[in-house]
Write a structure and sequence with these properties.
It holds the Pfam family Sod_Cu. Keywords: Signal. Residues 1-22 form the signal peptide. The protein is 8% helix and 32% strand. The chain has 1 helix and 10 strands; from the N terminus they run αββββββββββ. It has a 5-stranded antiparallel sheet. The longest helix has 14 residues, at 2-15. It is globular.
Length: 178
């Protein structure tokens, strides 16, 4: 299983590629979750009861030339019927769940009211009976360069849940500018 997890992490590194140009900007990252410290892992599970090692995640971003951005999430292998919170975070994943930093905010603020689905990318979902789930968030705005780097899965929807898993994603603006 470890070889499969490492192969999945290598595949994620190869597939996590952005493209820019006349059609906007797109990126895709996918991986199988591994325990913190696994070599070459791009996705970590911090709670193997809620996000078992070997479960899978895919995140896609597309930003149109207008700046409108959609982020899509797909997962498999999670706990059927469990409601998860998912947000884009500022920094890449690491063995320490806190390393991903805070939520990416379109309008950065220390006001707790700014933590909302209009100012952040929220991809909350409930896993279906087969353990799969998906979500889409759409915004009229684009990411600032270097300020959005991961997707963190929380143990409950909203803003108060514990971090249970993380995938590093090379989010980017459509033209390298804000």
């Amino acid at each position: 299983m470890v070889a499969g997890i490492c192969a999945g992490a290598v595949a994620a590194a190869v597939l996590a590629a952005g493209t820019g140009g006349a059609q906007g900007y797109s990126v895709r990252a996918e991986a199988h979750f591994a325990a913190p410290g696994a070599a070459h892992a791009k996705a970590f599970t911090y709670d193997r009861k809620l996000v078992p090692a070997g479960s899978w995640i895919e995140v896609r971003q597309h930003t149109a030339d207008s700046g409108a951005t959609s982020v899509r999430l797909r997962v498999t292998g999670l706990v059927p019927g469990h409601a998860y919170g998912v947000h884009v975070h500022q920094k890449p994943c690491a063995a320490d769940p806190a390393a991903a930093g805070g939520h990416y905010q379109h309008e950065p603020s220390t006001d707790p009211a700014a933590a909302n689905p209009d100012n952040e990318v929220w991809l909350d979902f409930t896993a279906r009976r087969d353990g799969a789930g998906s979500a889409v968030a759409r915004h009229s705005w684009d990411f600032r360069p270097g300020e959005a780097s991961s997707v963190v899965i929380h143990d409950m929807p909203g803003t108060k849940g514990a971090r249970v898993a993380c995938l590093t994603v090379p989010f980017g603006p459509r033209d390298g500018r804000s």
